[in-house]
Amino acid sequence: MIPSSSRFPAPFHRFLILLLALAAATLVLAKPEPIDIEMSLKRVSEHVYYVQGMAGIATDNKGFISNAAAIVTDDGVIVVDTLGSPSLAQRFLEAIQTVTDQPIKTVIVTHYHADHIYGLQVFDDLGAEIIAPGGFQDYLDSPAAGDRLEERRFSLSPWVNEETRLVRPDRVIVEQTELSLGGVSLDIRYLGPAHSDGDLAVLVRPDQVLISGDIIFEGRVPFTGGADTRRWLEALESLDQVGVKALIPGHGPAAREPAEAVSSTLEYLRYTRGVMASAVDEMTPFAEAYEAADWSRFERLPAFAATHRRNAYGIYLSLEQEMLGD
């Protein structure tokens, strides 16, 4: 509240107004650190655009290794995922603004992993509603979330820095939900814990474009980390693809043959789980089982060298836990 001019001299009153105006202008102009990265907005359908990160590990390409999408309507824009730094999210926002002057109304987060959520604050500061899957809190409330942020402040400095913050959602989805904006309807599909502690996929109804998040990796080896690969397989096997004309995965290029994109991730998970399941059943040490396996069908895929052995080891450990649980 600005003090009444009856209590302070007019020059002081004007000075205070000027200070407040300067402070507001500073907030408006404050932006993340600029980032020199190639990022092109690709149109998939009438309403849907996306940007595609390169195939690599988390800190490659200045952190631009994942995808994000924008659904443009007559009443605003819905963003799906926000990339791996505020700087990348700002570039994404600027790319969206080249095709529409509509405001960002909503952000849907397919899952809470660092390469998809560190850009959230850019859209949160614009007043967009943040929607996330149930299970997000298992990551966000864990020590791992803070540890990861501290590591990225080092490995992706200055684009992830002390100003980068973790953003909690405004709305949590735990069942299939319909969202409409500007005549465009979305089916938000809650997949439960699969690739992460909670995953969503988004079907843009009028365009029949499916935005899958990281339950599908196109043209590269998936990153499984600590994923529940049994649930992940179940989610893929139950994924309704009827009528889907294009698919935007969490990583890799958009697919015009969605069934092929789904089947490639399915094949990788099924085969790797099968090899590791046999090893666990026979009590074969991981290293021995890994070296004896034939990985030739996957070894030419991007990210194989950086990711696959860790994937296989994580799956081996999870299968041991599944066996104990069963």
UniProtKB/TrEMBL annotation:
Name this protein carries in UniProt: Metallo-beta-lactamase domain-containing protein
Taxonomic source organism: Lamprobacter modestohalophilus
Q: Locate the Metallo-beta-lactamase domain: which residues? A: 65-251
Task: Determine the domain of life of the protein's source.
Answer: Bacteria
Q: Which Gene3D superfamilies match?
A: Ribonuclease Z/Hydroxyacylglutathione hydrolase-like
